[in-house]
Amino acid sequence: MAGFDDLASERSKAQFDVEEMKVIWAGSRHTLEVSDRISRLVANDPVFRKDTRTMLSRKDLFKNTLRKAAHAWKRIIELRLSEEEAAELRFYVDEPAFMDLHWGMFIPTIKGQGTEEQQQKWLPLAYKMKIIGCYAQTELGHGSNVQGLETTATFDPQTDEFIIHSPTLTSSKWWPGGLGKVSTHAVVYGRLIIDSKDYGVNGFIVQLRSLDDHLPLPGITIGDIGMKFGSGAYNTMDNGVLRFDHVRIPRDQMLMRVSQVTREGKLVQSNVPWQLVYGTMVYVRQKIVSDASCALSRAVCIATRYSAVRRQFGLQSNGIETQVIDYKTQQSRLFPLLASAYAFRFVGEWLKWLYMDVNQRLQASDFSTLPEAHACTAGLKSLTTSATADGIEECRKLCGGHGYLCSSGLPELFAVYIPACTYEGDNIVLLLQVARFLIKTVSQLGSGKEPVGTTVYMGRVEQLMQCHCAVQKAEDWLKPSVILEAFEARSMRMSVASAQNLAKFDNQEEGFLELSADLVQAAVAHCQLIVVSKFIEKLQQDIPGKGVKGQLEALCNIYALFILHKHLGDFLSTGCITPKQASLANAQLRSLYSQVRPNAIALVDAFNYTDHYLSSVLGRYDGNVYPKLYEEAWKDPLNDSVVPDGYQEYIQPILKQQLRNARL
Ligand SMILES: CCCCCCCC/C=C\CCCCCCCCC/C=C/C(=O)SCCNC(=O)CCNC(=O)[C@H](O)C(C)(C)COP(=O)(O)OP(=O)(O)OC[C@H]1O[C@@H](n2cnc3c(N)ncnc32)[C@H](O)[C@@H]1OP(=O)(O)O
Ligand SMILES: Cc1cc2nc3c(=O)[nH]c(=O)nc-3n(C[C@H](O)[C@H](O)[C@H](O)COP(=O)(O)OP(=O)(O)OC[C@H]3O[C@@H](n4cnc5c(N)ncnc54)[C@H](O)[C@@H]3O)c2cc1C
């Protein structure tokens, strides 16, 4: 049978130890064990079925999500799951819900921005889910511009309270997940006003709904903002609207780690930088980078398996057609995405480390690495989510017509994923933050302040502005030092050119706006360098398992040379490489595709995804695509009856009309 045989035969061709690659992908043997166990637990639990999701009405879909969330919480308690296991369970349940915001933003905000006393008061309630919280920052009129928020929190010294108010329609909170129908509490961001003076944006814990009957508290108007893109998809989430009419909260519900308001109404700044008010966004952006590798690898797994099962044209001697994965065009679209999935996995791992490191330093009042952490999380969030959103759509096209069916799993994955390019910071706005950081770094070169972290390479500005790529033959592109130098030189030269152009403006802010499109490209170049360099660093670690390191080297080179090929204009116009070297890079890329080809199925098997998680007929582990596609079609509610509802009202009259016309 086609499919079964194809995938079995592909697996037998693998030239590396798949089980060891699974460990590399998971991060450790322990993580693999946890993820494997929990994914099976979820797959075998009927409550977590997801095959009807795209066909449910919004109300039924939402109720179904509530049921799953409640069941997930019950299982977490019953099985005494650790935090790590609970997070895996949430991952494999694979349905955005209010819990994500409660655990992913509300709790981290209290931890990061609350004082010790505030943490002691609120965290136990939140951990036991006696309250459910969300993160209410964005407003109808302001999302990207956080300093432009309009909600006010005015201190009333008479009662020792803040009055939370929405002064305009555009100040209505708009978008927060979990807010619309579920959350009992929110961290609300608003302008702190004391004695008519505006002290900028701060976070406040506000109770929204009664803990007895879930009704909104007096002065609060609250609801869901409506259907979003795609069927199923992110519509499991109750993104909400919220307005305050002079709602009073006690003074101690302002999050006071960064600044405190005293009983007398005095604002006292602590020694931590005010940017910590933005801290939750740094945490979540870091998480989003790891999630990008999951979403991309999932799409790539589906497209790769299907490409080995699908056959078109080119009858071989045995009378069967060619597997589409053997077409070079298919490989040149698919394998860079496979390589990107691995690249994002490793840069995500590194970013997690960076975040932990900065957090530890913050606890010890060392704030020196905060700007670097902000630039890296913002830039990599932007780079990886944009590439993943595009990559999922490319995987849909790689699956031809069947990729457009919901049963392929790709339309819903795309619809769920694409808002990641917007939430936690619009991707362009975030790249502009990176650009500011780069321009600042360049402007400080030669001032005695050495660049640190991911900008260390800028310390070699003279060498990087002048160096010439040493490639003479295609294989030279396999040397990590050659690749690194080309990427460093490109990024350096683009940042320096932007800084030089900026210097021509009398007004730097005006210049920044005028040059912003170029600045964004410089930021992309820097972020791509980070991804390439972290992949290369990963390969310098001890990597056990037959053939594993070789496969990862091939993927690393594919990622780097694919990016070089895609952004050839940058590399050529900055003089980092010559046209001849570009064509050698392309030749090397083709040869790398041939190297990966026999291992492609094993490389996606290493993600260790269950069929439940993939939820794709095309990506099934056994490759049994056609019988299952056929079977799925019959499950559509339209096929419940042979003659459709509406036949007599709408089809029959047309047919009869045509009959009369024909007789005329
Ligand atoms: C069943 C139970 C299961 C349990 C387990 C569950 C597990 C779940 C766990 C985890 C899941 C995690 C995932 C969570 C789900 C994700 C869903 C997503 C939901 C979406 C949420 C949102 O979207 S929230 C809203 C996000 N909003 C934004 O991102 C707004 C973007 N805008 C900004 O960030 C700022 O406005 C901007 C930075 C653009 C501009 O700031 P501004 O102050 O106006 O000015 P600027 O001059 O540019 O900056 C000043 C100064 O500050 C520096 N800086 C800026 N930002 C930061 C920062 N974040 N950190 C540090 N520093 C920062 C900037 O560089 C400047 O510095 P200097 O140049 O002055 O040195
Ligand atoms: C699914 C989803 C879930 C969300 N969940 C939450 C949540 O839980 N809590 C919460 O508080 N918020 C949430 N948000 C809101 C989200 O954080 C904002 O939508 C996001 O920060 C982008 O802001 P915006 O919508 O104002 O976009 P805008 O800033 O209005 O962007 C519109 C366009 O303008 C461009 N633009 C904006 N500023 C600049 C600039 N300075 N220079 C150049 N171009 C610019 C952008 O690139 C974009 O093309 C969510 C959003 C979505 C889609």
UniProtKB/TrEMBL annotation:
It is found in: Peroxisome. One of its GO terms (cellular component) is peroxisome. Residues 278-439 form the Acyl-CoA oxidase C-alpha1 domain. Residues 17-132 form the Acyl-coenzyme A oxidase N-terminal domain. The keyword Ligase does not apply. One of its GO terms (molecular function) is FAD binding. This is Acyl-coenzyme A oxidase.
